Amino acid sequence: MSAETVTIERLAAGGDGVGHLADGVTVFVPRAAPGDVVRLTGIVRRRRHAFARVGELVAAGEGRVAPRCAHFRDDGCGGCQWQHLASEAQRAAKARLVGDALRRIGKLAVNDPRLMESPDAFGYRGTITLTVAGRGGGRFAGFHREGGAEVFPLERCEIAAEPLNALWAALRPALRALPEGDDVRLALRATPEGALHVMVRGGDTAWMGAPALDAAARAAGFAPTVWWQPAGGAVRRMAGPEADAAAAAFEQVNAAVAAALREDVLASLPAVGRVLDLYAGAGAVGLALAARGCDVATVEVDARAVRATKARAAERGLRLRAVAAKVEDVLAGLLPADAVVANPPRTGLEAAASAALAAAPPARLVYVSCDPATLARDLARLGATAARLTALRAYDMFPQTSHVETLAVLDREPEPAR
Questions:
Q1: Is CATH 2.40.50.1070 the classification given to domain 127-249?
Q2: How confident is the model over 266-319, as pLDDT tens digits?
Q3: 149 burial type by CB count under 10 A (0-12 exposed, 13-18 middle, 19+ buried)
Q4: What is the DSSP string of 51-88?
Q5: Measured between alpha carbons, how far is 305 from 342 in angstroms, rounded to an integer?
Q6: Is the pLDDT of residue 418 over 60?
Q7: Where in the chain is the domain with CATH 3.40.50.150?
Q8: How far apart are CA 131 and CA 152, in angstroms?
Q9: How far is CA 379 from the centre of its chain?
Q10: Percent of the chain's residues with pLDDT above 90
Q11: Within 9-156, where are the H helices?
Q12: What phi-psi label fits residue 15: left (phi over 0), alpha (psi between -120 and 50 degrees) or beta?
């Protein structure tokens, strides 16, 4: 098949550029920028659309820039989708993706939201998770290539906080100490307070290599807490300083933007009354609400996080009910409430959770979403209208990627007078 040349018109959810083939079929092209004129290669046609790659950049769009990361350029790293886009172009695209989803899927008459930018476009990630590959002395760890299962060896990650890159450089020579197995992961975390964590997950047998990792880190001047979570087992500390396993597991990727989002969530919630904190994680929002004097119940499926929430509430003398369960299994029994805050995973609210909220709607629902499409779907399920969607904001939690966080506030209309 002869190559086709197309002009990229916009960016789609997921990050691909969108253009049209000569016969009018929509084509999705990774790592393309609006305004690019590209000669395509590897065109794969489906029933109603097609996929292709950039074979040659004929002319660059206005927002295209040279990527900073060698892995993005040379290894096709799948961690970032938009390092070839200027920051201004990324932010404009993210606001439009949120607005488009709410208009198209949610049937809401809304403008694109205001987007809070990240203070740092690079070096902001407080957590990176690497996949371990190879055997014995040939072991390496890295990220997956874009669109595939292949792993490439990571040298440094340009969006990771610099302490993580330095820690990774210290640990790389000691990878033989990691457990053997087909699904071993290595997560590095730096907390806003400066503490470092090394989380090893998986392995076929008991892991005895933590001292070697600890020694490699200490030789470079680091003192991380080393954790191990065997397949199907609980997290355990293997070396390094005492630390809170739940806090390490639920650390936010971009601490500065996460703090701003959390403040906006709290500002959107009442100072008194009964509040449900759904998908609560380590309970930061619920604990803050309890400190105000709200009657708070948190729901989180991770039992470790629930135990940590209870422990922190006890330490601070706060009254709070922390429930370890799936939200959809217990929500109906916890309603009614004056306000509900929900921060579900990318899949959004389960249908049973949406049904429970629709049957007993709180006066205010504060919804934090990491996927505009599922946010729009859930707002439609909840019967939102433009009049009831009283606030909509977006947050650039993950610069250089197509991901965007959104805060939506729904207010129930008062019952008509009788």
A1: yes
A2: 999 988 899 999 999 989 999 999 999 999 999 999 998 999 999 999 999 999
A3: exposed
A4: EEEEEEEEE--TTB---S-HHHHHT-BSS-S-TTB-HH
A5: 16
A6: no
A7: 92-118+253-411
A8: 9
A9: 20
A10: 85
A11: 70-74, 87-104
A12: left
Q: With beta carbons less than 8 A apart as the criterion, state whether 115 and 407 touch.
A: no
Q: Is 324 helix (H, G, I), strand (E, B) or coil?
A: strand
Domain 92-118+253-411 falls under CATH 3.20.20.70: no
CB atoms within 10 A of CB 110: 17
Count of CB atoms within 10 A of residue 265's CB? Answer: 21
Active site residues per annotation? 370
- 73-85 tens-digit pLDDT: 999 999 999 999 9
> What is the spatial distance between Cα 144 and Cα 71, in angstroms, rounded to a whole number?
11
Name the phi and psi angles at 277, rounded to 5: -110, 105
Look up residue 107 and give its two tokens.
């049937």
d(CA 261, CA 255) in angstroms, rounded, equals 10
Please give the CATH architecture assigned to the domain spanning 1-64. Answer: Beta Barrel (2.40)
Six token digits for residue 57: 């950049």
Secondary structure element (H or E) that encloses residue 372, with its range: helix 372-381
Q: Which residues pair with 227 in a beta bridge?
A: 199, 237
Peptide bond preceding 336 in cis form (omega within 30 of 0): yes
* pLDDT at residue number 1: 47
- In 253-401, where do the E strands start and end? 274-278, 295-300, 321-324, 339-342, 364-369, 389-395
Cβ proximity of 64 and 33 under 8 Å: yes
